[in-house]
Structure formats: C-alpha cells, structure tokens
Amino acid sequence: EQMMADAAQHGLGDGYVFPVHGRSGLLGSLSIGGVPVDLSPVEMSLFCGVTHKAFWRLLELRGDADALDSPTLMETPLTRRELEILHYLADGMTSIEISKLLSISNH
Questions:
Q1: Deepest of 23, 56, 83, 107, by most Cβ within 10 A of its Cβ?
Q2: Which among 35, 9, 30, 6 has a CA at the least distance from the CA of 20?
Q3: What is the residue extent of each domain of the chain?
Q4: Cβ-Cβ contacts under 8 Å for 101 (sequence gap 6 or more)
C-alpha cells in the first residue's frame, strides 16, 4: 500500500511489471508507471519480449548469463496454486481463460 501511495504522489497512477525468470526463479523485472494506459495483448507481449532480451543481453555482457541460466541442483517445490495452474495448462486452457476462472491477472 505504501508503494502505491508513494507512486501516486509522484504522478504514477498505473503501471505494468514485466518479470524475468530463469531456471531458478525470478531474476528481475521491468516496471513501467505513469498515467493509465491500456496495452493490447500484442503490446504486452512485445514489452515482455523486449524486457527478456534486454535483461539477458545485459547479463551476457556482464558474464553472468551462463551461471543464472544453468539448472540448479536444489529442488524447488511448486505451490498448490502453481500446480493448479499447471493442471489447467495441461488441460489446454489459455492464460486468459485461467485468469478469468481464478479471478487473477493473466500475467
């Protein structure tokens, strides 16, 4: 709540977050904020693709990409919600259909 209040004080009324995941989980994200703007699914996909490409390219330039993209030896158990969503995906549902069913964002 505090972050949203602080953002609103600086004129950021809405925004998007584009996460970047590696094999071991969340590595980073791109956050964009400002006045409310509705992006189309195609525009969101483009932002997501650009975010991933730029993030991984920066890691390559720093020499960190190989270490972060290699599989980890530790087991990372999935949550009940993650397993539920994987079952829906296995049944052929799209992310939009799943998000509507669960009343969550399709991102």
A1: 56
A2: 30
A3: 2-72, 77-107
A4: 88, 93
